[in-house]
Amino acid sequence: MSKLEEIANGVLAGNRRSIARAITITENTPEEAQKLIALIYPHTGKAHIIGLTGPGGAGKSTLTEKIVREYRRVGKTVGVIAVDPTSPFTGGAFLGDRIRMQELSTDEGVFIRSMATRNNPGGIAKATKDAVKILDAAGKDVIIVETVGAGQSEVEIIKVAQTIIVVHAPGLGDDIQAIKAGMMEIADIFVVNKADRENAEKTVMDIQAVLQLDTREKTWIPPIIKTVAVTGEGIPQLIEKIEEHRVFLQKGLLHKRSLEKAEAELIEAIKEQVTGSIIGKLKRERRFEKVLQQIVDREIDPASAAERLLNQELEKNSQNDEA
Amino acid sequence: MQGERKIRVLIAKPGLDSHDRGAKVVARALRDAGMEVIYTGLRQTPEQIVETALQEDVDVIGLSILSGAHMALFPRIMELLKEKGLTDVMVFAGGIIPEEDVPELKRIGIKEVFGPGTPTENIIKYVLENAPKRS
Q: Quick check: is B134 in a domain?
């Protein structure tokens, strides 16, 4: 048995060491990751995947901890991926989401992994998608992905999660401005955390006001749940809404969303493999450098040069096929 | 681009003291040296520390302690690491640790002990040079 097969089998058996190693592989070695995911993919698709996003300071980690506890109370196993930003200057990262989840770390029904973005844009890491698959294959009933503190455009989470919770809290500054653009459109559930603060009602009304401006036809109207994560207030109601949304998805939308997700992943994989193989090959050829010089000399523009190189490449390939 | 190997470090504070300034300074220094640093906060039990190290698949653990309970807590941590098969993880310690305890701590597998006032560059250099090279 190869090392990868061994790890894959460990993941499927729910072995925590194997799960941890597997996630490291998805972060560090793309070629091995691809083989590993191929081995476990048939066993995925069972978990309900929740995305938790919103501005920094809204209380995402504390909320995550409380959601995990509530699911544990009803006997479900949970995986958590908590994403924090990588410094674009040093490449290092401070991963501190576990501070609020300490007591969960010795619960055998919970697996928590901190993950740095490694400068992937969009609020999650490149490996997050694969890490979710690993936790799914390991048999976790619920998987929570906590994004980096997100403002407007960090909406990559829609490619990963089935139920998206956008968390906000009163007094974070720009109020609803901060979650205006993309955030408002991706939410399946809104949470106004720290609802014991006096201006919480205003935050709720602001969200309502923005929601009413949304004229797209909808079969699911995102509810707004008030919580006080530190005390656990509102958590049972939140879980109820998550479950409602899960059932709602299963009645029809889930298949459509799965197809959309599959399409996005397939296209991304094709792009990556094409870039990987063709660029690698072109770079080794002399005409690549020649074209670079032509671009610099303004003899040809980059897009046209790319088209020409690609066409030549495809032609070569089709000749090979015929021969 | 995906595919870069990063040193992952767990900075943990076992025991009951609540002085985490040293731990945070070291965490920050290692982050600024390009490592991924997992920080778990105060008052960690040996069980929590080892389980976190396992789930996070870290290469290095840094233990910070000022309570004086290191001779009770560190052996338990090393024992649990062995039990869980995490024998390739490099462990170092810092805080208030008397000179005469250091030989025993090294005997049970703690690679290095840094006293108060150690320049962070020394710790960074040590970790970069001694972090296990894993595939």
A: no
**Residue A221 has what DSSP assignment?**
P
Which tens digit of pLDDT belongs to each residue from A209-229? 888 877 777 788 899 999 999
> Any chain B CB within 8 A of the CB of A27?
yes
φ, ψ of residue B102 to 5 degrees: the values are -60, -45
Amino acid at site A175? D
Hey, are the CB atoms on B56 and A20 less than 8 Å from each other?
Answer: yes
For residue A16, the chain B residues in CB contact (below 8 A) are 54-55
pLDDT above 80: residue B13: yes
- The residue of chain A with its CA nearest to that of B46 is A106
Q: Looking at residues A194-213, what average pLDDT do you find? A: 86
- Backbone dihedral region for residue B64 (phi beyond 0: left; psi -120 to 50: alpha; all else: beta): beta
* Percent above pLDDT 70 for chain B: 96
CATH architecture of A45-252: 3-Layer(aba) Sandwich (3.40)
Find the Cα–Cα–Cα–Cα dihedral A32, A14, A71, B36, rounded to 10°.
-40
- Nearest CA to CA, how far is B104 from chain A (Å)? 28
pLDDT at position A12: 97
Q: How many CB pairs under 8 A join A and B?
A: 93
Expressed as residue numbers, the domain containing B14 is 8-129
Query: What ranges do the domains of chain A cover?
Result: 1-43, 45-252, 267-322
